[in-house]
Amino acid sequence: MIKAILIFNNHGKPRLSKFYEHYSEDTEQQIIRETFHLVSKRDENVCNFLEGGMLIGGSDNKLIYRHYATLYFVFCVDSSESELGILDLIQVFVETLDKCFENVCELDLIFHVDKVHHILSEMVMGGMVLETNMNEIITHVDAQNKMEKSEAGIAGAPARAVSAVKNMNLPEIPKNINIGDISIKVPNLPSFK
Amino acid sequence: MSDVVEKTLTALPSLLSLDSQSGAGKLSSTSKLGGLIRSITELTSKHEEEKLINRELAAIKEQVSSPNTSMRQMKEIMVRAIYCEMLGYEASFSYIHAIKLAQQGSAIEKRVGYLAVSLFLNESHDLLLLLVNTVLKDLQSTNLIEVCMALTVVSQLFPKDMIPAILPLVEEKLTNPKEIIRRKAVLALHKFYLIAPNQVQHIHSKFRKALCDKDPGVMTASLHIYLQLIKENPDSYKDLTGSFVAILRQVVGGKLPVDFNYHNVPAPWLQIQLLRILSLLGKDDQSTSELMYEVLDESLRRAEMNHNITYAILYECVKAIYTIYPKSELLEKAAKCIGNFVVSPKINLKYLGLKALTYVVQQDASLALQHQMTIIECLDHSDSIIKRETLEVLFRITNVKNVAVIVEKMLDFLKNVFMEPDILFLLYVGCFPLLSDTYSPNNEWFIQTMNVVFSLGGELMHPDIPNNFLRLLAQGFGSEEEEQQQLRVFAVDSYLTLLESDTAHLPQRFLQVISWALGEFSYLKDGLEPCKVTKLLAKLLDERNVTSESRSWILSAMAKLSAGPGAAALALQVSERYSSSLDTVLRQQALELLHLSQDPELHARVLPHGAAWDSFEVDSSLSFLDSFVSEALSQGAAPYKAPHQRQEELRQEKALSLEPYSISLPVSLSSCSITDRQSPTLLSMSSSLSGNSNELKAGTLKLEGVKRVWGKEGYLHQQDAVEEAAQVEEAATPALPLSPQQGGAESQQTHGDLTVVEQEKQKLASSLFVGLGSQNSTFLMGKSDSTSQQFRRKTRAADSTSSGVSERSSSSSHSSCSDFLHNNLLEDSQNSLNTQKIGVSNGTHEGPVTQSFQTTSKETSPFLDAGMVLVQPCSPQTELRDFVQPGSSGITQTSLRSQFPPELSQLPHSDISLLSSDHSLSLSACRAYRDDALLFVIILSNLKCCGSIFETFSTLIQVASLRGNALENLPAHSMSVCWYALLMEEPHTQVTVAGSVSYRAVPGHTQTLQFTDKLFLTDFIRPLTLSTEEYGKLWLSFSQDVRQNLKLIQGEGDPLRATLSALKEQLQLHIVDIIGSEGIVACRLLPDSPCLLHCRIHGGSLAVWLRSPLLSLPDCLLYYCQKTLEEC
């Protein structure tokens, strides 16, 4: 399970923090500080894994991070996640951000914190990896953004009408994945009810 | 792609630093968030930022409470509030508005509302209840996106008690035509399973449906649930192995659509997940493992080394191969793979390779041998994480032959990076003594290593280490007396040398160890004048940086040495100086020293030689003071009152609080007070029980003029008494101190050889990996034993202490008790971190001992707790001596039952089941249901031997009492029955009871038989008989309630009656009353936690409403109701 996702810049200023387990306000800030402290003093040519983040749950947990120019992307995960898998998930996340913001930079993350959160919630849900395909993620996020535009046009209309229009406009999210004949078939489930 | 990102982000600093204003302005010149961020970037100090944010928050507060703020503005305000919260400033006033936004806003505002809620609140926040209705509404919405938002927020946080309300809706979503909704619904159910497993018990079949979903995405999501389920209970899902293998085979074979590819690898994350599941399923199970050999082989083959993510798959594959039942062909390939990882120039892969090695060397140490050169190189790697992993590998391959070199390397590592107060280093320092005394090649080396550890570890070191070390020194390794003496003499020598040089840099803990050892053992050294040692100690005493705690250790060491002629004069000098010390503890010890040095007879009586570790008596009841007290009372002194009593009176007499004056005694009083044999810290903890703590608390009372029974003389009197209890030996004649360097020369030399030169490295490698090659198998066996060896030694120590105590049944020593507990705790922390041991004492002569243990455990717990992860002394553990008699090999139920004592055979009980057995002992158990407890009956049938028994129980059960027959000696061929009365402290659907029986078939050779059994909540449920009126009263007073619809049993007659009587039958409930279509039922969880059920027929099902004062009792009980009715 992913316990937390943190983004901060080279000076330790938080740019995004998302915790999938409950910590008190103070602990969260402490975790961010501690994580920054651990991560920032590591060279570029060392490994991307760290053990021993104390606050976030002890020895079972690992920090997996990537450093892009001014930003650190840090995932705190427990032992049930694959280290290299998460490392590539960070890459997918950053590439997705890059696509959504067209050449993402730190300022995008600052001014569109909500959008970054929305993108993240299409990738990771409740600490579990939901989607790893960049195109899928963008499709879902776009569908929501489209809704925003259509809504802006009819801002004054009563809510009931709005949802009716929405349903007309967005009957279905376009699907990239063709699951026709070659989808996975699960053979012989014995005690299947 | 990443290049683009890199480039963009590289350009950013200039943008931010030089052009921050215009950059921010360009992006959002109008928005208030823009303004806020712009002003924050301009700030220079934390203080200014605080001021600014507080201003901002005040503005937000004003805006949100204004009725004119539109939802649109509110959305913008929420984003600002999120920003402030992220920076660590609380914006709690906005929480309620976030909920309102989620409730009332249109879709896009709702999205921000939900986001704010999921960032602001937590699962137990009260406001969350207000969100439930919104979530319900959105789940029923026709708008896809609203449903998705609701599911997302549900999986982030949802109040546990409200799950039943939305569960049907979420379940329904599993059949939704949109795959994204099905997928999110599966993850929401996963979340429910994590926080309230009992409530989703009935939809396991739907998980299976999700696993077979035609959309691979939904199937992937369902794997999260299965990974969790299989982790908890692999046996129940073995039947799915074939399916998982089939899925993996298709994924690996490229049967998935191309969209699932990532860098041309088909669905890598899915593969990783499947490999993890397979390794859990195949663990220790040959037949299941055989199913997966082929697909694992294919995975290894297909994953070509070309991209990061294929390494991830390979790594999981290798781990799976080493976890499941081994197959040599695969192991070979996996080993090769690990080799590739280890030698890879990519640092991340090196890390994983080393990690895999730590895992693998336990099974196959020769693999480390293959890569010895790489490991040596990694030791000098610049990345401390890599170094740490390497040391971990080395730690696992430690044996008698290479221990010296490995420890040397570890010490080097500690020296280099010790500045970081990292807890892992504490761990390393902590594992040293284990390493050292398990494999220690010789005494000199051991002492040398410990000296280095002490001086490096400093104050960061866990206090157990010095304590254990001193115990070892006093008791020896259990080896010959001569060898022990040698060890002590060597220790004394090396310490003297240390003291003669500069002592300023030595940590306090080390000084304490030194002074204790010198005080105890310097007499062993021939020709060493006690006055020489005393002089050194006196010099130490005068050092500035020595803390008063260490001073008191030193003073007690001097007291032990003070008998000698030269020493007495010096002692006089020292005691004169410290008898006027401000520190009362030191002052008192100085006076003791004075008395002891002037009265050799007293000294010999109080501190005899060579009795370092014998248990000594402390009369904790202070009965020797009885005459003094009665005399004082007869002269009109006020009787003694307990501190709390006095406090009470004080409060009654005066409303004024005198708190500020209360701490009039120096706090250090509690640190150490008594001339002590083994460890002042330990003893003072327990001694505070009778003396100091009262004294401290009584500080307030002096002002009140309450006459203290513990007057000045009384206090001194008590001290004398304790001194009498302690014993010491005289100092011996001096000898030439041996240089400590000499002993360690060998290892030092090895260290010196380690240079960059390749040849030297090879030499080091050969010394590190010695013992891994030729006698591989023998080494491996020894290796796997290493923890248990350690464990056994500790047990022995515990044995001896406890038997020492039980011989003096009337009085017991606090310090040995606490040591004893200490030992147990250590064992605990080694064996299992999560389970507490609850031991039960049996037997006549040990009864009183148990009592005293209980008191002591309370007194010492704060000390023991310090740094002892997860373990708390909750109940003492003692051994249960039991003698088991042999029986015939075929034991039948009846023959076992015939062993039951009459009071047991009356009770209803379950079938007797065999728990475990070996060639000489067989262990069966059954549960008997007594009205006030569950009796867990253990029947031991034995063939030849006798032994002592340790039982371990799970945390959640309280052991109320134990009955059984304990025998000192055992005639052959019979059985023994003992039973435990168990209560459940905290409701759980099931708990595991684990324990072990140790017995000695051959003298000196202990064998252990492990057993586990599961106990269910229903075992602890008893009917609760009460009237309808009483029921009504109780109903209103309970706070925890749960409602659920259950299946109704359709049969002849009244379905309600039929259902309730089925429940009554199965679950031991009491039906209070049935009126029309409603019925009320009551039961209690042992010992006395009631749970009330209100049942009503509602539309073809049984609507059950449970209430109880206990948090999870209704949940757990509901689970069993559900199960019972499903089975009917």
Short description:
By secondary structure, chain A is an alpha+beta fold. In chain A, about 45% of the residues lie in helices and about 20% in strands.
Structure, described:
The complex is a heterodimer of chains A (about 190) and B (about 1150). Chain A is α+β, with helices and mostly antiparallel strands and about 190 residues long. Helix content of chain A is about 45%, strand content about 20%. Chain A has helices at about 25-40, 85-100, 105-110, 115-125, 135-155, 160-170; strands spanning about 1-10, 15-20, 50, 60-70, 70-75, 125, 130. Chain A has a five-stranded antiparallel beta sheet with strand order 2-1-5-4-3, sandwiched between helices. In chain A, strand 4 and strand 5 (about 70-75) form a beta hairpin. In chain A, helix 2 (about 85-100) packs parallel to helix 5 (about 135-155). The longest helix of chain A has 20 residues, at about 135-155. The model of chain A is unreliable at about 155-193 (pLDDT under 50). With about 1150 residues, chain B is an alpha+beta fold. Chain B is built from 50 helices and 17 strands. In chain B, the strands form four sheets. In chain B, strands 12, 13, 14, 15, 16 and 17 form a six-stranded antiparallel beta sheet that branches. A five-stranded antiparallel beta sheet of chain B has the order 4-5-6-9-8, with no helix packed on it. Chain B is globular, with a radius of gyration of 35 Å. The chains are: A alpha+beta (about 190), B alpha+beta (about 1150).
